[in-house]
Amino acid sequence: MSLTGRPLACLLIVTVVAVLAATVWGWGRLAGPGARMVAARLCALLLCQALVTLSVLVVVNRHFAFYGTWGELAGAAGVGGRVVQEQGHGGTGVRAALIRRDPEVSMGGTAARDGRVDTVDIRGLRSGLHARAYVYLPPQYFKEGERRRFPVAVVFSGYPGAQRNLITQVRVPQTARDEAKAGRVQPMVYVMLRPSMVKGRDTECLDVPGGPQTATFFTQDVPEAVRAAYRVSGDRKGWGVFGLSTGGYCSLKLAMRHSDVFSKAASLSGYYGAIKDITTGDLYGGSQAVRDENDLYWRLRHRPQPPISVLVTTSRSGERNEEETRRFLSLVRPPMRASSLVLDSGGHNFRTWKRVLPQVLRWMSHGLTV
User: E strands of 125-263, at which residues?
Assistant: First the structure.
């Protein structure tokens, strides 16, 4: 039974109603004295409370898609599947692999008409990490006799949201399909991921000293695996990255620190400074230097500005990052270029990101070459 499906939510709601009704009906029988009756009443109340809480969590998760599958909830990428292609380098062996799973998402038509969403696991030996991802291939990818390569956009969800949000809530592949059909964007491949692969921890897309090597995974393992499995650009000029909230910060930082991998980056309601909170733990190994290197303001002031183009979005009303966004833009200097998309109003939510997505895709598409 799907974690985000309607049957699970309905089953839990029906169970809650049934257990509450049974508790009310049988309460008189539990009203007697003695430790056994007290324990029975306590268990009945705890069971009702647990089922109500679980039902609320499932309904909220179904709406926001924090976890798209049972495997994601358990912190596992799953087992099984088949290796589509692996890439090796001389005698060093396989460095990255992309494993295709049974499809979880349908575009509603044929691949030749609407494109296809592949469900894949990406495994990297450099970083030692692996992650579930969705890869959207445009209809042009399946054109008979077509052998051309396509530009790529790596797309990050927020944290702790699941990558499935990018399909069910923000509708990245559906919007990319419609925009391409209208001639407003070029056909591209979209690789959709979470910004963190460590259960219960926001690693902020960096190589944690003595910990998860997340930046290495996103800037080396992912491009290598995707290039080995699909007909995509082999050059930085054909690769962009964008994301939501934490994914937006990750997108800017990865492009700024790895301009040899990404030439464009867009941040939808992202932030700009390195953080440390209960979800991150110690990301910097106690080093102020490591923290500075992951602070975008600090990098713009103290490091050579990279040859990339960036787009940042915010709202005058409803967002909390307008002032920080203007500060970031004020620090950008050539060869780096920056654009902004500022709404009159819009919250930190899927509805706002869905509104700006078509313009983000048009901006990302323009200038990416293979």
Answer: 130-137, 152-156, 189-193, 239-244
Q: Model confidence at 190, in pLDDT bands (50, 70, 90)? A: very high
Q: Which of 122, 140, 186, 215 is nearest to 367 (CA)?
A: 186
Structure tokens at 120: 């894949």
Could you tell me where the beta strands, DSSP code E, fall in the chain?
Answer: 82-88, 94-100, 116-124, 130-137, 152-156, 189-193, 239-244, 264-268, 309-317, 337-345
Which residue shows structure tokens 């797309």?
A: 155
Report pTM: 0.79
Question: What pLDDT band is residue 150 in, cutting at 50, 70 and 90?
Answer: very high
C-alpha 166/C-alpha 178 separation (Å) is: 15
Q: Which residue has the tokens 């494993």?
A: 99
Helix (H) or strand (E) holding 180: helix 172-181
Query: At residue 217, what are phi and psi to the nearest 5 degrees?
Result: -60, -45
Of 172, 235, 241, nearest in space to 205 by CA: 241
Q: Which of 77, 121, 132, 79 is nearest to 99 (CA)?
A: 121
Q: What is the pLDDT of residues 35-71, one digit of tens each?
A: 888 888 889 889 988 989 988 888 776 654 455 556 5
- Closest by CA to 248, choosing from 319, 318, 305, 186, is 319
